[in-house]
Amino acid sequence: MTSRDLCSTLADVPKQEDRDHVDRFLDEIRDELPESVDLVVEGIVDRINGINWRLKRMLDETLEQYGLTSGDFKVMSALRWAGKPYRRSAGELARIADLSSGAMTNRLDQLEEAGLVKRVRHESDRRTVLVELTPKGKRVHFAAMDSQAEKEALIAAALPEKDKRQLESLLRRIMLTLEKRVPKSEKPKPRSRG
């Protein structure tokens, strides 16, 4: 018996009111998919993608409240995670954000104009410029994180503690398997425009 057959016969198939859009979509396309497509795996992947899309959308809404872009937030987070005094070189920030030095300069100009970061000279090498999160930047970053944490609490509300821990463990196992196949350091090459 294949997973395709099991999807139709298992006793734990969700009741109609417990079915999500992925269940309905898979029902619609089931007969059009090759036999090699495992509908359970397809459902898992589609749900992970849907959850990811919704989490990103919630983060974008949060950042918009604070006048930030996801790129701004990434730079501010990189500074915050550096620890006190919340400094990094512009080159290091460009590598973390995967930006050219010119694009990073523009982003830093905007963040500096908003009073969220400031440029300071390195104490021992005056030629090196460091970027530091300002007190205002720390407050804005903390407030955005706090606001986003409230939204992410929806995940906590959906599952009891035992299930959350089990889900975390299962997702970790999947991540470890995928990390062996496609390490995070491998970035897809940009497609040519044409």
Description:
This protein is mainly alpha-helical and 194 residues long. Among the domains are: 1-67, no CATH class; 70-136, Winged helix-like DNA-binding domain superfamily/Winged helix DNA-binding domain (Arc Repressor Mutant, subunit A, Orthogonal Bundle). Helices cover 62% and strands 7% of the residues. The chain has helices at residues 3-9, 21-29, 39-65, 70-81, 90-97, 101-113, 135-158, 161-181, and strands spanning 87-89, 117-121, 129-133. Strand 2 (117-121) and strand 3 (129-133) form a beta hairpin. It is elongated. The relative contact order is 0.08.
Descriptive keywords:
single chain; 194 residues; mainly alpha; Arc Repressor Mutant, subunit A; three-stranded antiparallel sheet; disordered C terminus
Summarize it.
Helix content is 62%, strand content 7%. It is built from 8 helices and 3 strands. Helix 5 (90-97) crosses helix 6 (101-113).
Low-confidence stretches: 189-194
Number of strands: 3
Strand content: 5-15%
The best one-word shape is elongated
Q: Report the helical percentage.
A: 55-70%
In DSSP terms, counting alpha (H) and pi (I) runs of 4 or more, how many helices?
8
Mean pLDDT: 86
Q: Give the biggest sheet.
A: 3 strands, antiparallel
Query: How far apart are the first and last residues' alpha carbons, in Å?
Result: 46 Å
Oligomer description: single chain
Tell me the series of helices and strands, N- to C-terminal.
HHHHEHHEEHH
- Report the structural category: mainly alpha
Radius of gyration: 22 Å
Strand order of the largest sheet: 1-3-2
